[in-house]
Amino acid sequence: MKEKVVRVISEFNNELKLQGFKAFQIEDDSQDTRTYSRKEFYKICLTTGESKIHYADKTYEQEGTILFFGNPHIPYSWETISSTYVGYTILFSADFFKNSERSESLQQSSFFKIGGTPVLKITAEQRDFLNTIFQKIIVEQESDYVYKDELIRNYMSLIIHESLKMEPAKNYEHNKNASTRLTSVFLELLERQFPIESAQHPLQLRTAQHYAQHLHVHINYLNRAVKEVTGKPTTAHITERIMTEAKALLHHTDWSIAEIAYALGFEYPTYFNHFFKKATGTNPKSFRLDEV
Prior knowledge:
The protein contains 13 helices and 6 strands. The protein is α+β, with helices and mostly antiparallel strands.
C-alpha cells in the first residue's frame, strides 16, 4: 500500500513538472504542506476549515473560507486543525503563467510578495463564485480543447483579479516612469537572492552599493529612485528582507547562530548579533528561544 502511494505521488510530481500546472480538489493537507519548506511551484488554494499557516516569519490562524497564495521562494507549512477540510488547489510554474499577456498581475500583486498578504478571508458569496472558477479549471485541464492552457491562464487571471479587488486599490497603483522601472528591477533582484538554502552558499548582495554595481547605475540614482517610489531607502528594503530571512532561519532550522550569520553574508557572528539586535531589540539566541 505504501509503495502504491509513493508511486502515485511520484507520477503526480512528474506530471506537474512536465506540464507546469495541476489543479485538483482537496480534502486534507498533504505531508508536503505540513513540512515547513520552500515548494517547487506557485500555489493558489481555496479552502474551508480551520487551519494554521506558517508563512516566512508569520503565522496565520484561519477559520472559515480563505484564499491562499504560495510563492516557491518563500517557505511555508500548512497545518489542518478541523476534522473536515475541503477546497481546491492550483499548482503552477512561473513559466506556465508567463505565457499569459496578463502575467504582470502575478508579479505586481501583493499576494505572492514577501511581506505581502498571502491569505484573504472569503465571504460565502465570494466562495460560491470562486468555487465555480476552480471547478472550470479542473474540468478544462482534462479536456481536449486545443487552447485549454490559455483558457486556464485566463481563469487564473480572473481569480487573481477578483482577489485584487478585495484589496485597497492603492496597493496596485504604479506609473511606468524610469524610477518605477528601476525600483521594480531592484526589488526583483533583491527577492532573487533568497531563500538561503545552505550555509555554504552565503548571500552575495548585501549593501545598496552591491545592488547599484550589479544594476550598473550610480548608488545615488538607485537610492533616489527607490525612495521616490517606495518611500523607504534602499538599505531599509535590504535590511528588512535580510531580517525576514534571519527570523525564518532561526525559527525553522537547526543551524547555529554562526552558520546563519555566515549564510546571510556577515563575516563574523558578532556583526550579525549587532545587526539583529539593532533591528529587533533582542539578540538572535534570545529570539530563537522565545520562538520555541
